[in-house]
Task: inverse folding
């Protein structure tokens, strides 16, 4: 549907007003976090679009600090769960306990009942613990005994994992990985940024108190505004072409992908690519989606949703290579 120019201008103005808190939030986060602008942007994007985020990076890259700082800058409940091999599902969602005073079993809710869940080193827990988290992530509810408890919005799982340590870890099930809207791959900071980190750490500047500059009501209102960001039909088709090219590559002039890919991206990829593109436009304080919005977040949405064959791995082909070629090949509207 073509949006009238006047309506689009009014929408753009409204989005510009509704997104005014974004630079304020970023500035507050920068009090304790040096650099890592990409990570901070994607965490806020996940928050605005209601999508869970998986952060993968080496130790010491401020993954945990970034998530804790974001939670502190928003007036919301925050829980940190340290995943370990001996963790039980009840340690996450809660359990039924016997209350002698009432002579009955009552529900004791677990740490998953919060707005922000930091799942630290999520791949250190076995499958039965991961399955307990699946319902919360997808259905936004928890079942304890015979009762179901809805989780209060906004509900966001921000998980971290270390890509180099394999001992004592369990690969996440594909069904669970697919439930993360974004997978971020983090790298070392630039030399100048690391110099600032040293100076701020020595002077104690990184210990500054983070004030809550945004409340829950503002976040929920922003989420509704994100859904209103205008997306043209050409952008929708562009998103579909990117996703379908991972499933039927030869139809898109990517015949070599046939031997590289075991499976393509799921329908969640199309949904999340569209939602993330809207949130990206919102963060740019714009009322409409551009192809650049889609291209900028395509790797984060797709990198954990395609499977590489042994042949691709033997040729040292990575998911990053595949998605990069995909973006370069598919025609931009």
Result:
């Amino acid at each position: 549907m073509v949006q009238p120019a006047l309506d689009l201008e009014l929408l753009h103005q409204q989005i510009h007003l509704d997104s005014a808190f974004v630079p304020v939030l970023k500035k507050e986060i920068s009090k304790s976090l040096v650099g890592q602008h990409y990570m901070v942007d994607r965490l806020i994007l996940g928050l605005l679009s209601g999508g869970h985020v998986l952060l993968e990076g080496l130790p010491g890259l401020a993954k945990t600090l970034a998530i804790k700082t974001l939670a502190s800058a928003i007036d919301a409940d925050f829980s940190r769960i340290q995943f370990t091999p001996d963790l039980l599902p009840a340690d996450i969602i809660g359990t039924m306990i016997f209350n002698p005073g009432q002579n009955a079993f009552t529900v004791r809710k677990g740490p998953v009942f919060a707005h922000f869940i930091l799942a630290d080193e999520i791949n250190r827990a076995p499958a039965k613990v991961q399955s307990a988290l699946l319902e919360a992530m997808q259905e936004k509810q928890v079942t304890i005994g015979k009762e179901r408890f809805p989780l209060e919005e906004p509900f966001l799982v921000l998980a971290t994992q270390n890509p180099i340590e394999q001992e004592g870890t369990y690969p996440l099930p594909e069904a669970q990985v697919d439930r993360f809207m974004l997978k971020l791959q983090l790298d070392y900071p630039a030399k100048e940024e690391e110099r600032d980190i040293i100076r701020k750490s020595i002077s104690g500047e990184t210990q500054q108190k983070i004030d809550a500059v945004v409340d829950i009501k503002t976040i929920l209102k922003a989420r509704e505004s994100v859904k209103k960001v205008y997306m043209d039909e050409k952008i929708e088709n562009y998103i579909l072409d990117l996703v379908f090219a991972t499933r039927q590559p030869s139809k898109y002039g990517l015949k070599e992908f046939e031997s590289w890919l075991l499976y393509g991206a799921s329908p969640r990829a199309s949904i999340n690519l569209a939602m993330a593109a809207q949130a990206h436009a919102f963060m740019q304080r714009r009322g409409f989606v551009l192809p650049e919005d889609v291209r900028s977040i395509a790797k984060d949405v797709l990198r954990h949703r395609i499977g590489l064959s042994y042949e691709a791995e033997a040729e040292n082909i990575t998911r990053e290579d595949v998605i990069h070629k995909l973006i370069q090949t598919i025609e931009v509207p």
Summary: The CA atoms of residues 189 and 195 lie 10 Å apart. The two ends are 16 Å apart (CA to CA). The mean pLDDT is 85. The chain has two domains: 31-219, 229-329.
